[in-house]
Amino acid sequence: MASKATVIFWSLYHLRPSMIYWRVHRTLKGAVIRLLERSGFAARLFAPPTETVSVSPLPRLGGRYHCEDIDLETRRMQFLNDALVLPREAGALRRAVEEQPLLWQFHFGYHD
Question: Is this structure's pTM higher than 0.70?
Fold first, then answer.
């Protein structure tokens, strides 16, 4: 029966030094984070900002070739003069896109 030291040696023998380094690094990093959380320093170090951020409405997007019209608020997308209001449900969205021409589907799929 092999001793535990022999098993550990042959396990480490096949590892690259960088693999051993990163394993030690991640273990120590996790220990430091847990220590900071227990001591309460993490809450003070990583406190969320107290200032408020104003969010403006989404701007209208245009395609690269200026032949498309994309409105994110109303979920309206136009390509090749075919406009489509995108449904919110995944199944309905898939069916609506499948009804469009193949070039439209390709354009939609790659978000060009």
Answer: no
